Amino acid sequence: MALEKPRKSVKARITGRVQGVSFRVWTLREAERLELSGWVRNEPDGSVAALFHGPEDAVADMLDRLWRGPAGAVVAAVDFDDVEMDEVPVRFVITG
Q1: Is the pTM higher than 0.85?
Q2: What is the three-class DSSP state of 53?
Q3: Residues belonging to the active site
Q4: In sequence order, which residues have a C-beta less than 8 Å from that of residue 77 and are 6 or more positions away?
């Protein structure tokens, strides 16, 4: 019987040239590859916000991938905080 990997939830804010370069769609695809749940959205200030939930190693991998982003993106910063979740998202979605 396999042991359940420790899971965590992280909210991230990505700044730089991250809107108008398909960052949300790229994030959705990367999160799905890593089997993460959560969401991603554009913010009014030009940043992108995202919530990732899943195995600790997959969340850490996603945070590293955010620094690359899709072609055309220029990431200036990836800020994130661990968050407690009352309800865990079932899948990963683009919310705005």
Answers
A1: yes
A2: strand
A3: 24, 42
A4: 13, 14, 15, 16
